[in-house]
Amino acid sequence: MSGEKIILVDDENELRHSTAQALELAGFEVIDFASAEQATHFAGFGFKGIVITDIRMPGIDGLTLMNRLHELDRDIPVILITGHGDVQLAVRAMREGAYDFIEKPFVTSQLAEIAARALEYRKLVLENRVLRAAAGQSDDLEQRLLGRSNAMVELRRKLRTIGPTDTDVLIVGDTGSGKEVTARALHDLSHRSSKPYVAINCAALPANLIESELFGHEIGAFPGAMRARFGKFELAQGGTILLDEIGSMPMDVQGKLLRVIQERTITRLGSNDGLPLDVRFIATSKTPLEANVAEGTFRSDLLYRLNVITLEIPPLSQRREDIPLLFMQLLTEAAARYRRDPTTVPPQVLTALSERHWPGNVRELRNAADRYILDLGLPFVETANDGPEGDSRLADRVAEFERGVIESALIAHAGSLKPVYESLGLSRKSLYEKMQKYGLERGRYLPSEAEAD
Question: Alpha carbon of 109 to those of 13, 52, 100, 115, 437: distances in Å?
Answer without folding.
Answer: 20, 14, 15, 10, 65
